Amino acid sequence: MRLSVSQSVHEQEPPMTTRRLPLTGVRVLELGNYIAAPTAGRMLADFGAEVIKVERPGTGDELRNWRLKAGTTSMLYRTINRNKKSVTLDLRSEAGRDAVLELVRRSDIVLENFRPGTLEKWGIGPEVLDEVNPEIILVRISAFGQTGPLSARPGFAAVAEGYSGFRELVGDPDRPPVRVGISIGDSIAGMQAAFGAVMMLFDRQRQRIHGAAEAVTGKDIGSDEPLADRTVDVALNEAMFSVMESLVPDYSAFGEVRTRTGGRMEGIAPSNGYLCAGGKSVVIAGNGDGIFTRLMTAIGRPNLGEDPDLQTNAGRWERRDELDEAIGAWCAVRDVDDVVAVLEDAGVPAGPIYTAEDLVTDEQLRARNMIQELDVSTGEEILADVAFPGITPVIGGASIPIDHLGPDLGEHTAEVLAWLGLSDPEDDEVGDDGTASADEEPTGE
Description:
Keywords: Transferase. By secondary structure, this protein is an alpha/beta fold. About 35% of the residues lie in helices and about 15% in strands. The strands form three sheets. The chain has a six-stranded parallel beta sheet, sandwiched between helices. A three-stranded antiparallel beta sheet has the order 1-12-11. A three-stranded antiparallel beta sheet has the order 8-9-10, covered by helices on one side. The radius of gyration is 25 Å and the shape is globular.
């Protein structure tokens, strides 16, 4: 269904939650682009923080044009930047700098994912931020971190995935490494940044409570802690390195070099995706000792389930090709629903490999409000009842309702600047086109 572009999305507001959100009262200033820092900002905004997103005048966050199917603003932008406010400021101008510092003065957290040194070049580096607000928490996301020999390099998550060891394990062993279908490096870095921000908020609050209890010193608890101890330094390559499980210990202890295994997981069998009749696929995880026996009985191969050499995972891994062939042959003549039903009755973990079409109708997701339908503007027209992913993690039994989707470019500029007691910089001076140079590129996908 399409509505007239003259109809406001806000005329059909989604239901507001009456739940007290955990981060209500926290203010976050988001200086960033693409996916990494905006993901952190989205997570904080989802749970009640007021996130003020600063975008370049004219162009805004480049994510507005990524995977753009119609209009001027993509569904990707609307998703990643939900529940935020958008303010347009030229960070290289004096007026833009003054506005940012005034926002810093009134904020708890600053998020940024520019190339290291960019904020300093603009005159809003850590020392300046600390002087303006001695309690500010600074969260910085970059390709390789703020220190070390590679820190000055720009880089996107695709490159960081290579440096982390992650990309080497994705794909089939007889082909070059491939990437997964999402910006996983940016997303994981964003999650770690959000966790780091909340961790620092918790520490600050704990210090205030202890200070209030002692009460005799009269100290400003936050001001005597150096900014370095209030800075969260997230590197894309390290974020991905942190999820590589025992890759390095296995190499260090045993000299093992893991290789790509396609749909399998190294050392675990049988566990893979299998094509079913009708063209859909299923994931079957039959790698537990007892589960394996039940799986082989269910597919009519009890001889394999009773084979002495297959009673342990190590033995099954040695014969993984044989096992996958047997399971694949059984799946190939059954549709995916039949396969899942049979294995569910047998107590074998299995499930369909969903497409977007499957996700929007999934009963489990809808029961937990994980599919939320909202009206959304493309910038040229309004689309009604578009499905968006809900808020995670769940508190209270179901996903919190999304308050609003990613805002229009500069939608809240006048409101926020009026609150700061400032005039709109664009009314006072003519800036440049607002684009970033190579040295100013944000860290992102």
